[in-house]
């Protein structure tokens, strides 16, 4: 499912933890480096609050991202790529990410080969994590 705001969301067959681990495992095959992981639920607990599983991973390929930023440097606000694994109120697990084509439109980059490669990689990574 893709929203008009550029966010692609796929339902996962797995728990939030397993979906995240499958996501992390799928990245090296696509020459992606993990730059950071954020456990929003754990951070909520540290603030005395609760939150269903909500984990963000920030990752990318510096070569591809740099090519986009060479064209439009402010695209760096949307790079590196990110994926959010979260559980909704019904217990269903989702993986959401910004569509690279939407990022390209937002920054008037066009359909550069790097954008097409990012789109294909994100689709493959998301499928590997959720199916």
Structure write-up:
The chain is an alpha+beta fold. The chain has a single domain (7-130), classed as 2-Layer Sandwich (TATA-Binding Protein). Helix content is 40%, strand content 24%. It has five helices and five strands, in the order βαβαβαββαα. It has helices at residues 16-26, 40-46, 62-71, 100-106, 113-130; strands at residues 7-11, 33-39, 54-60, 81-87, 93-98. Strands 1-5-4-3-2 form a five-stranded antiparallel beta sheet.
- Give me the side-by-side strand order of the main sheet: 1-5-4-3-2
**Total helical segments:** 5
> By CATH's scheme, which homologous superfamily applies?
TT1751-like domain
Mean pLDDT: 93
Span between N and C termini? Answer: 14 Å
Proportion of helical residues: 40-55%
Decide which structural class fits the backbone.
alpha+beta
Silhouette: globular
- Summarize the helix and strand pattern as letters: EHEHEHEEHH
Care to count the β-strands?
5
CATH class, named: Alpha Beta
What is the alpha-carbon Rg in Å?
A: 15 Å
List the uncertain runs: none
Largest sheet, if any? 5 strands, antiparallel
Q: Return the CATH topology.
A: TATA-Binding Protein
The CATH architecture term is 2-Layer Sandwich
* Strand residue content: 15-25%
Overall tally of structural domains = 1
